[in-house]
Structures are given as structure tokens and as C-alpha cells.
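Human:
If only I could read C-alpha cells as easily as an amino acid sequence. I am handing you a single protein, as its sequence and its fold in C-alpha cell form. I hope you can help me see how the letters and the C-alpha cells relate. Thank you; the sequence and its C-alpha cells follow:
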Amino acid sequence: MYPATRRTMLKNLSGAGLVAVAGLAGRMAFAAGIRPDGKSALIVVDVQNCFVTGGTLPVKGGEEVVPVINQLAARFENIVITQDWHTPGHASFASAHAGKKPFDTQKMPYGNQVLWPDHCVQGSDDAALHKDLRLPTAQVIVRKGYHQDVDSYSAFMEADGKTPTGLGAYLKQRGITQVFVTGLATDFCVAWTAMDARKAGFAVYVIEDATRAIDLNGSLAAAWKKMQTAGVKRIQSADIA
């Protein structure tokens, strides 16, 4: 009877059965807690005055991510910060295009660009990091969008899809294999960072309650769908041991 039973079990583990077991294993791993190690990096995306209440491009509840990120930071040896850092009159600003208003789109050489209010201008208080961030092991600040004619949402690649920031090479040289993405906004800079990190070969987690979204015309749902397709894992801060 044992050989037959064993064959039946092996058969049941194929196809949908194997998927079910794998899914259960994944849930058990999350329940046990994900423990960051020396090969893990926390990426804190654009937690700047611009994107919180009172800023030029506020994300609803943006400041609420700060205490969550500060708690997470204590668990990470490696932290990277990104900072939107635009030139005056940047090509992504609606004010740079006659007859355009914020949240219109504009065809650019690298594709369709959402046009934003003037924001995160270099050296302004609006562009400064939130004063309450506490990231003692942060090693690098990646500044994005400082080239006049191209926007940059991702910490890894500018919006032209051709110009790397150098972050991927830096992390790999440090032996980092997995990244945990937090910050603002979920459906733009966080999502682009997460998907480009996957393209660069990293295991990627987005910590949902450490992010907030703009959700422009359904952009949040669309971003989560794209991230899932790319293999990005969606977790909560409570999943980090």
C-alpha cells in the first residue's frame, strides 16, 4: 500500500497541488516574519516636504509613512534614500508647457509624461527630506530628476529607460540581493523603483503600509498589477521580524 500511497501523494503535489503547497509555504514564511540581513536594503523613496501636507505636490497621508519607516530602519544595516531634485522650469512641470495644466500629459521624446505642478526644486525647503526621518544607517542619497529634459521616477533608471542612476551597480557591489521599498508615492516613484529593481535582478518587496499613493485616474490599482506581474511581493511592516 505504501508505494501506491506515495505515488498518489506525488501526483497530488503536481500542478495546482504544488501551487497550493507553495502558496501555503509563502504565507507561513510571512507569518514567521521576514528577517532582513546584510544582503538586504531598505529603500526610502522621496519622503520630502513636497509630498506631505503643506507641500507643493502633497500625497494624502504622506507624512504617515515617517514613523513606520523609522521603525523599519532599526532592522536594516543598509538604507538608501531617494530625493526628487528638479531644476527650475523642469520639463515635467506643467508650467514649462504653454497651455498645459498640472496632471495633463505631454508627449516627450521618451514617451508620455504626466505634467506636475512645480515641485522639489533643487535647494528649496520643498525638496528637503522630512525633518522627522530617522535613518541612522542610511549610506546613499540618490537624487532624481536633475536632468532638465527628462523626468526620473525610479531610483534605478531615468524615465528614458536608458540612463541608469548607478544604484543597481552600487547595491550589487555591496552584496545586496533583496530590497524593501517604502515611501512616496506608491503608484509612481515607489512602483517604478520596485519594477526596475526586479529588472536589475533583485528580490523586491514593497511594504504597503510604509507607502501612500496619489491614485491618479486608477493609477494605484494599475501600479499594483504591474508590480505583481513583475514579481514584486506586497507585504506589510508587521511582516518584518
Notes: Residues 1-32 form one domain.
